[in-house]
């Protein structure tokens, strides 16, 4: 190994490589902020930084609405006889209609700092909040995109911005409602936003596109968008709610995933967000296409969406990622925990995600590996994880945390997911740069004061 400075060479007592724990791992960061070399079974070289605990790769948060961090915890009362996703959405629009670019940056900086503490090192922002408060475009149409990008840069997290095609309020409604006025886009606008973001060439920032949902986009406009997207990620909300499935059946004669598979050339660029209500035939068609799914267990539970067919998606080999979505949870261990717990409650079984016949006895390890691989595809980077060529991200676990204290080393990932509460991510590295050390941000000011000020302004009327 060639001589390097200590800033680019790390040694971990254990690290998660190729689906399992490896001992005495040397990790070298190249000048481009990517892993140049990772080798197990290496005695500690004198010039290396010795990491304070076992190392995991960071995960991709494959579905986020940053502005909804300002709404987390504020929809947990019921004032009428019925409360569901649709009534939650009406209340959520209040913050969507009031938040300014400055407030969005403050909220997003708080969120992205929390996501790093929760073990995410990249976030895919499903970005449909585009226009000024009155619905007219900003002088710079990317004003809210830059607010998110600046918040991500401040926190030190990687960001994939996904401007969203959003045209109508429903299958039978040709236009948006007034309370959706800040969301309006067509294919040309989405492509212009994506190109503007990409052209900026900001560090740790890339861009793809998204379709809000089949109910919110005209088929012809989806086709126009796809004609120009090239090799970039394409995300879509789909089959989250049974009402959405029923509306799609009434409007088209097909279920949402069924319609998408028949009318759109699905491939590995596509990420189907939620995909809560699926049939075996739909799962098979998605598996054949190479598209992935993004499940957001804490949000889907909070909103009463239902439970995805996790065993079906896993058995079919469909790439699977996770997301924080509405931000009621901001750490991946809890998302994986509830991904498994939902299945246990539904089936009255334990370790549903495990596959001992395939040599995968650990539910946590199988879900983590799938989320690791699927997340890499969701954000459009060519390599992800602790491997040469991937961006140099890692998490250092705090084995003195009460959830991990005294446990056998080979069971740390199991405990991280299924023993809570935990504050286990001691240090976080992104692109070869420390962004958290000893449970605190390594650079920049604490965003919490600006977040609290933004929250007071948004909710001062109660």
CATH fold assignment of the largest domain:
TIM Barrel
CATH class of the largest domain: Alpha Beta
The CATH superfamily label of the largest domain reads Metal-dependent hydrolases
Q: Spans with pLDDT under 50 lasting ≥5 residues?
A: 1-6
Shape: globular
- Return the structural class: alpha/beta
Distance between the termini: 61 Å
In DSSP terms (H or I, runs of 4 or more residues), the helix count works out at 14
Q: What percent of residues are in strands?
A: 15-25%
Q: Kindly state the mean pLDDT as a whole number?
A: 95
- Which percent range fits the helix content? 25-40%
Radius of gyration using CA atoms only: 22 Å
**Total E-strand runs:** 18
| CATH A-level architecture of the largest domain | Alpha-Beta Barrel
Largest sheet: 9 strands, parallel
The number of domains is 2
Explain what the structure shows.
This protein has 462 residues and is an alpha/beta fold. The protein folds into two domains: 6-56 and 392-441, Roll (Urease, subunit C, domain 1), CATH 2.30.40; 59-378, TIM Barrel (Alpha-Beta Barrel), CATH 3.20.20.140. It is 34% helix and 19% strand. It has helices spanning 85-98, 101-117, 143-155, 187-200, 219-226, 242-252, 256-263, 280-289, 297-302, 310-316, 332-347, 363-378, 412-418, 448-459, and strands at 9-17, 20-29, 35-39, 49-50, 55-56, 59-64, 120-127, 158-165, 205-207, 209-211, 234-238, 270-274, 292-295, 320-322, 394-397, 425-430, 433-437, 440-441. The strands form three sheets. Strands 6, 7, 8, 9, 10, 11, 12, 13 and 14 form a nine-stranded parallel sheet that branches. Helix 2 packs parallel to helix 3 (143-155). It is globular and about 65 Å long.
């Amino acid at each position: 190994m060639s001589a390097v400075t200590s800033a680019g060479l790390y040694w971990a007592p254990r690290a998660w490589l190729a689906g399992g724990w490896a001992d005495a791992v040397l990790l070298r960061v190249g000048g481009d902020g990517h892993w140049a070399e990772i080798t197990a079974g290496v005695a500690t070289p004198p010039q290396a930084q010795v990491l304070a605990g076992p190392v995991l790769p960071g995960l991709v948060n494959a579905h986020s609405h940053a502005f909804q961090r300002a709404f987390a915890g504020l929809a947990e009362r019921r004032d009428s006889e019925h409360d569901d996703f649709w009534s939650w959405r009406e209340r959520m629009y209040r913050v969507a209609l009031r938040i300014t670019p400055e407030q969005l940056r403050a909220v997003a900086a708080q969120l992205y700092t929390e996501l790093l503490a929760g073990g995410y090192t990249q976030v895919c922002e499903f970005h449909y909040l585009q226009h000024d408060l009155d619905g007219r475009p900003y002088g710079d149409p990317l004003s809210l995109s830059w607010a998110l990008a600046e918040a991500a840069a401040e926190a030190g997290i990687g960001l994939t911005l996904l401007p969203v095609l959003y045209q109508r309020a429903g299958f039978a409604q040709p236009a948006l409602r007034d309370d959706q006025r800040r969301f309006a886009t067509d294919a040309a606008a989405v492509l212009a936003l994506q190109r503007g973001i990409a052209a900026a060439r900001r560090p740790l920032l890339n861009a793809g596109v998204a379709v809000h949902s089949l109910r919110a986009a005209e088929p012809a406009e989806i086709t126009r968008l796809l004609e120009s997207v090239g090799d970039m990620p394409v995300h879509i909300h789909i089959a989250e709610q049974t009402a959405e499935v029923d509306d799609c059946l009434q409007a088209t004669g097909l279920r949402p995933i069924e319609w998408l598979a028949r009318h759109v050339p699905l491939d590995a660029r596509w990420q189907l967000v939620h995909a809560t209500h699926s049939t075996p035939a739909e799962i098979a068609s998605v598996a054949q296409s190479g598209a992935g799914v993004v499940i957001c267990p804490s949000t889907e539970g909070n909103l009463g969406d239902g439970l995805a067919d996790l065993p079906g998606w896993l058995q079919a080999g469909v790439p699977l990622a996770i997301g924080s979505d509405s931000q009621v949870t901001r750490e991946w261990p809890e998302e994986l925990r509830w991904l498994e717990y939902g299945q246990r409650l539904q089936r009255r079984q334990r370790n549903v995600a495990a596959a001992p016949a395939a040599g995968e006895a650990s539910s946590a390890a199988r879900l983590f590996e799938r989320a690791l691989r699927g997340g890499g595809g969701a954000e459009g980077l060519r390599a992800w994880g602790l491997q040469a060529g991937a961006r140099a991200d890692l998490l250092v676990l705090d084995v003195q945390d009460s959830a991990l204290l005294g446990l056998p080393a080979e069971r740390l990932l199991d405990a991280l997911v299924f023993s809570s509460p935990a504050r286990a991510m001691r240090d976080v590295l992104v692109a070869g740069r420390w962004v958290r050390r000893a449970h605190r941000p390594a650079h920049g000011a604490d965003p919490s004061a600006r977040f609290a000020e933004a929250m007071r302004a948004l909710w001062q009327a109660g």
